[in-house]
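Protocol step 4 of 5: obtain the predicted structure for the target chain.
Materials: sequence only (see below). No template structures provided, no constraints applied. The aim of this step is simply to have a reference model before the mutagenesis design in step 5. Sequence pasted as it appears in the construct record:
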Amino acid sequence: MAPHIKRLRKAHEFDIIHSHYDFYPLTFSRLTDTPLLTTIHGFSSERILPVYRKYWDNYYVSISDADRAEGLNYVATVYNGIDVGSFECGDAPDDYLLFFGRISRDKGTHRAIEVAKETGMTLKIAGSSRASIAPISRSASSLRSTGSKYSISARWTKKQETSFSSRRIAACT
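Step 4 output (structure tokens):
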């Protein structure tokens, strides 16, 4: 028997089951009376929406109000973010732009590339990617024709994280 099925036998021991595993656990949600709460970290494709809509009566949390799909039973929005107070605010910004986040169109990587083109500034792109970053790489490579430079790191290393967290952020809110 598959391990996740064995764990389902213990579902009655909990008040709620909280899932971050996309739509897959939804298929088991009707096999128990324990409510399933699914945090949706973005829809990878419009093609998976019918699966979510089939389980519309489950409970969902979105990562932004803009990232919600109609017809689902959302109970909250929990924004992903960083504590900007943990960074030192400086008067002298570095001479590059930084995009730090999941590398995908829906996170606005393409907009960061457009801004770099418009300003002629170097763009550093860092983050993870669920899919191929080839389309972003092709788009970013056009920065060279505008005199801008770019670098892409699809895997954020501990060394880079330490380097980034020690940098001063010039544009403070």
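Step 4 remarks: Strands lie at 17-19, 36-40, 59-62, 74-77, 96-100, 122-126, 150-153. The first helix runs from residue 3 to 8.
Proceed to step 5.
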